[in-house]
Amino acid sequence: AQEKKIFMVQGPYPTIRRLLRARGWVERKLPGVGRQLAQHPAEEEEEEEEEQHDEDPSGLHDLMSYLVRDRLPNFIWTNFLDATDPELLQQDYVVNHYARVDAFTTKEGLCLSLQNLPWIEQADPNAFFPRCYRLGSMDEREAFIEDFCLTAARSLLKLALEEAEDGLVRTEQVKNSAKGAGESHIPHSKRSTARPGSPLYPELVEEALEVCRQHLGVLQHQDIDRSTPSPCRTCINWDHFLQKYYHVAHEGAGLVLTRQQQKQCQNVLRHLAEQLPQLHMEGKLNVWILKPGAESQGRGKAGGSGEHTEASHLGGLPPSLCSPGIVCTARLGEVLQLARSCTAPSVQVGRWVVQKYVERLLTIFGTKFDIRQWFVVTDWKPLTVWFYRDCYLRFCSRPFSLCHLERARHLCNVSVQKWYQTSPDQDPRLPSDKIWSNKQFQEYLAQLGQADAWHQVLVPGMKAAILNTLRSAQDQVSFRKGSFELYGADFLVGEDCQPWLLEINSCPTMSPSSAVTRRLCANVQRDTLCLVLDRKDNPACSIGAFELIYKE
């Protein structure tokens, strides 16, 4: 019946409007509602919105909208829930958002929800979510400081082993140097080798070994009889240790390593790997990423411009650290100082999260990328989740390097990368619009000899991460029958093709920035309407690339 086919669209969604009109639905337009709704803290700000062409030259749709101006809509698609009249949400109408999803769609909410996951499910968030701390919580800030120090100790053991191995192969490298260098497939910039006259720290490896042994004892529950709750924080002078570690990791200072210590380093790291799922991906330079915790959907990532060069470790902040955007840093002092000093109105006091940067990640032609993966929740009681089989990759504008931490190399969001021109040293095989489809990625994996990685490692890993995240936040979401929501999850890919969840967006952009996203964004909107509207009347209808992956 026509009275059941009135819809309302708030925000820049011409595809949704066109698809509903093609189904015979009539739009109820709100007076004064225009593009001002497109900018809102809850919406993902990525690229310029698609121009809305005049699809109503005869004025017929405007006339029909006028006739239903006093009627309540049966279907609402909006870019943020609080733009919707609360009275409409009390009715049995279909709405494309749930309330209180900030429990997993803000960085702070996701961090807190996944901390609680082990109490809800037999799952370890450290297996798919880089460890994360809310700096506004004193306990978590102290836990982060301890984590940073322990990671520095582990990293130093890795650097010591690397230096020892370099010493063993140096002669061979000299012999082979005349042959010329081929293309390097290792994108991770190696730290500078020790310069002549750089300091040596013979005691540093022993200190790091002692710290890691203490930590291993804690992890293996051998510290039950200790009177101190955290022996790792008191067993050495951490200020001195970190300063020397910075010299080794970032400034080329040398290490002295005996053969016995080499074996001890290998043994301790092997045992730690059995306890720490993130030991491999965390690398050896101790890079962390600082984010405004109350923000979501990539907002704030373009705060500031220019290159983040290393500043004095406890001195003044580099210019790019003075903005409220996301920042990568390898210095503890910079993290703590920025979290204390930022007074930007968009960042509430204490609402920062700091997360371990995935240093050992898969790159494509030497460039970092991430994956935007869609999914839909059509019910929370019982939890019902649909996974979209198509997704896309977003590339950075400059080659990946851990020696340079500016945004152009490390933040893949279109809202960041659109401000940068492609670097001259970027591999020409990369797409000019910095977007790939998952099909192109699968072809690339096949060229690497990893043809099965997509279906056997990446997709199962992304599905598991999404489901575990939703279950961790399920009790926090305000459930409403008749609602649904399309989300966009962002993943990094480790060297071993394991996906690492970064964040989940409650209002993923549908504005095309490339030929790939123009096609995929239109498809996911089409298939979402099939899923939530057409399937009600015809359970056997096509739902495109969606597949049901969970129903309680």
Brief overview:
The protein is an alpha/beta fold. The chain has 16 helices and 16 strands.
Would you write up a description of this structure?
This is TTLL3 monoglycylase. Keywords: ATP-binding, Cell projection, Cilium, Cytoplasm, Cytoskeleton, Flagellum, Ligase, Nucleotide-binding. It catalyses: L-glutamyl-[protein] + glycine + ATP = glycyl-L-glutamyl-[protein] + ADP + phosphate + H(+). It holds the Pfam family TTL. GO terms for molecular function: ATP binding; protein-glycine ligase activity, initiating. With 552 residues, the chain is an alpha/beta fold. The protein has three domains: 72 residues, no CATH class; 221 residues, 2-Layer Sandwich (D-amino Acid Aminotransferase, Chain A, domain 1), CATH 3.30.470; 114 residues, no CATH class. The protein contains 16 helices and 16 strands. The strands form four sheets. Strands 11, 12, 13, 14, 15 and 16 form a six-stranded antiparallel sheet that branches. The protein has a four-stranded parallel sheet with strand order 2-1-3-4. Strands 5-10-8-9 form a four-stranded antiparallel sheet, sandwiched between helices. Helix 7 packs parallel to helix 9, helix 7 crosses helix 10 and helix 8 runs parallel beside helix 10. It starts with 5 loop residues before the first strand and ends with a strand.
